[in-house]
Design brief:
Strand 7 (88-95) and strand 8 (101-107) form a beta hairpin. The chain has 4 helices and 12 strands. It has 203 residues and is of the alpha+beta class.
Length: 203
């Protein structure tokens, strides 16, 4: 599934490729994390196994529909903050057309995505919130720009919810998409992606 996401072609370029020299003397996980950076992949350790996924546009059936009858003790909500929110992301990448020197690409670009840039800036009280990310294993301008776009957009939709649910949630793993219906927040089957799962002392 992850390979298929990487191989999706847009504007004549695959969504993600990785061009990197790995040192076999390093730990496998260290090398793997360098690879995952190029596709925004995530690795989670759950019940003795590693789970890997790449976030993608969701289409399908959520693995669990959570409603208030399944929630134990309410929910905690954390909205995005200035430290996690960006109105522009700058990605540093390796440019093979410039003797493999580093180059930068920004999204939204004030010259190309003017309305988006101005809209984001206005929503943040005209305070520039620039996030700089280095992805040396990316060697394609369009891919670097796509990564910058995903990182910027996701930083602006960063509502986190933590909650305890009944045993129906036991089979969920990070990367799964669930829906949450919660009356006081006027949420009706609102989609969330699971980032962390644990079992409480009470089970």
């Amino acid at each position: 599934n992850a390979a298929n996401i990487c191989d999706v072609v847009s504007d004549s370029v695959k969504a993600f490729t990785c061009n990197i020299v790995l040192d076999s003397r390093q730990k496998v996980l260290s090398n793997l994390k360098q690879i995952l950076q190029t596709c925004l992949g995530q690795l989670h350790f759950v019940n003795g196994k590693y789970y890997f996924h790449i976030d993608d546009t969701f289409s399908g059936t959520p693995v669990l529909a959570i409603d208030e009858s399944m929630i134990l003790g309410g929910i905690n909500i954390t909205a995005d903050s200035k430290n996690s929110r960006a109105n522009q992301v700058v990605v540093t990448w390796t440019n093979p057309d410039d003797q493999y020197q580093t180059s930068e690409v920004a999204w939204p670009d004030p010259n190309n995505e003017t309305s988006t840039y101005n809209s984001y800036l206005s929503a943040d009280n005209n305070l520039p919130l620039i996030n700089r990310v280095s992805i040396p294993a990316c060697t394609n301008y369009k891919q670097a720009r796509y990564l910058a776009m995903i990182l910027c957009r996701s930083s602006r939709q960063n509502t986190n919810v933590s909650l305890k649910v009944t045993s129906e949630g036991a089979n969920c793993v990070p990367g799964d998409v669930v829906t949450l219906t919660y009356g006081s927040m006027s949420w009706s089957a609102k989609e969330f992606r699971i980032t962390n799962v644990g079992i409480s002392a009470s089970g």
